[in-house]
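task queued by scheduler; priority normal; single chain, no ligands, no partner chains; default sampling; output format set to structure tokens
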Amino acid sequence: MKNFRFQNKTDIRFGTGRLDVELHDAVSQFGSRVLFVYGGHSIKKSGLYDTVTGLLADLQLTELPGIEPNPKIDSIRAGQKLAKDQDIDVVLAVGGGSVIDAAKVIASAKFYEGDPWDLVKDRGVTRWKLQQLPVVDILTLAATGSEMNSGSVISNPVTHEKLGTVGPNTPAVSFLDPSLTFTVPARQTAAGSMDILSHLLEQYFDRSKNNDASKGMIEGLMRTVIKWAPIALKQPDNYDARANLMWSATMALN
């Protein structure tokens, strides 16, 4: 086995019914000025938007909607401006991996005076020197594992680049409620499941020798996805299927 360092400070809140009881305190412990980052209209259609805004009604929410899949640098720039102008205390990301990726870079960009693309193209070197806002997230799609790692992938349509960047912090608190993925369409469920498997296979076929502990964990996660993904496709509101996929996604890239 190779030498490594492992550290993860994300507070995982897994299961149903936790938002009503725990979200307010999880966010407000960091302050009252909240940048609420989300994607399209799905959280409004599902009622999650109303739930979140209702639970945090006494806090100062500044919204940044419209985060794209493979988030664009212009969204990060908009978030940087809002974070500075509103002196944001904490970033709340509600969505899938792209929303959480964007939130993590915005959390760094508040403390950077230049263009946030600098924080991406240097692969995170500058981010490690900056202060970071805490990020709290509510996951709505099992796929990338962004809810418990420090990486982000950001795209720049002008330069035709899509680059990864790594910061010093993982999300402070992540809410993983499998029931929030009941409404994920079959196509996205299948794509997310393949994303999980691809992350696992990338690590499985490395060149390290005698790493049986890691290989065994990867094999177990792959078996889990292979078992439960078809069930989730046939029974989208099957809690155990969604729960196993969600936790596998989180562990696959962590």
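post-processing summary
- The first strand starts at residue 11 and ends at 14.
- Residues 212-234 form the longest helix (23 residues).
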